Amino acid sequence: MKTVYVDNAATTAMCPEAIDAMTECMNGAYGNPSSLHHAGQEAASIIVKAREDIAKCLGAEPNEIYFTSGGTEADNWAIRNSARLGAAKNKNHIITTAFEHHAVLHTLKKLEKEGFEVTYLDVSEDGYVTAEQVEKAIKDETCLVTIMYANNEIGTIQPIKEIGAVCKAKGVLFHTDAVQAVGHVAIDVKEQNIDMLSLSAHKFHGPKGTGAFYCRKGISLVGLMQGGAQERNRRPGTENTPAIAGMAAAMKKACAEIDKNAEYVSALRDKIIDSIVEAVPRTRVNGGRSPRLPGNVSFCFEGIEGESLLLYLDLKGICGSSGSACTSGSLDPSHVLLALGLPHEIAHGSLRISLCEYNTEEEADYIIEELPKVVKRLRDMSPVWERIMKEENE
Ligand SMILES: *Cc1c(COP(=O)(O)O)cnc(C)c1O
């Protein structure tokens, strides 16, 4: 059976450029980048180059980029550091949204226990927040606004530049978790008024367990851990040279091809959404159609369970997701779908298909052919669907 991999928001396959960069690095540049001899300096120069490449893709300066173990660490770092800066000035209020990734939400929950006050902005039915909402929520005690660039479950893209402008005018730090956006939509941190940004390599065909934190120069930054002097004294531990090289190669490629990929992938996305909405009654498309990540398709099918849907699709070779990989395994419906105001029973029947430029037209057609059959089969067995149909016929 062939595999149709459409779970690219959970993680992506690595691109050949990233694999080559890593292999080359593992074969040759095994020195410790902190060593003074030429073997160490060769590794150090790979890191210098990677930092330049990544900075360039974001419109940042190389010395504003810090390598991390991924998006989660970058999110924790941005929030913790901002909280520290806020606390020093007696500012203990943070603004975020109700549908952030758990790396943000759980860090904020912890800060609430430590005495911080957090405002969770409501998101609209179609999955957006506005700069006006942010402006209204800012008070004298606000030290940070953290709002994701694009949502990992429903793909909606937030008005980052406008939110950044509000924060700038009010003198409040602005962080964005851009893990889903980097490599998929064009970003310029200066132009978009972004003070801090998190990214993760494995979401754009780079290696897992590596990411970066952009922190605008001028913001005082201390590390989460203590140790050696790596990353300009802020992130101790021997650098993962191969992963950093792989991330830079993947990012360079993704950024060079961003428009071409977005055009191709969003056409597949729209074809799947339009066809399924037409073929399957009582389908809800989660999240507004635009602005939306090129690869994100998110449905709720009334009367069925997302988990069973995934298992049946898997039997057909289709790898999708019921929401985010991080919440699967728990039976609670996703906090993202609940934040849109969906009732529990509808939120349970969710399916996320996340595409990338490796997906083909044939794969999209296969999904369009198989998905309605699977939904029908599950509905035929579902007492909830039976009730819905009964009510409809009354
Ligand atoms: C995947 C993801 C993360 C976590 O990144 P890791 O590198 O897996 O730690 C954080 N935020 C968003 C929006 C994500 O999609």
Note down, in words, how this protein is organized:
With 394 residues, the protein is α/β, with parallel strands linked by helices. The protein contains 14 helices and twelve strands. The protein has a seven-stranded mixed beta sheet with strand order 2-8-7-6-5-3-4, sandwiched between helices. Helix 6 links the parallel strand 5 and strand 6. The protein starts with a strand and ends with a helix. The structure holds pyridoxal-5'-phosphate. The site of pyridoxal-5'-phosphate (PLP) has 13 residues, from helix 3.
The spatial strand order of the largest sheet comes to: 2-8-7-6-5-3-4
Strand element count? 12
| Average predicted local confidence, pLDDT | 96
With helices defined by DSSP (H or I, 4 residues minimum), what is the helix count? 14
Structural class given helices, strands, pairing?
Answer: alpha/beta
Helix content: 40-55%
What gyration radius follows from the Cα positions, in whole Å?
A: 22 Å
- Give the overall form: globular
List of distinct ligands in this structure = pyridoxal-5'-phosphate
Strand content: 5-15%
Q: Helix and strand string, N-terminal first?
A: EHHEHEHEHEHEEEHHHEEHEHHEHH
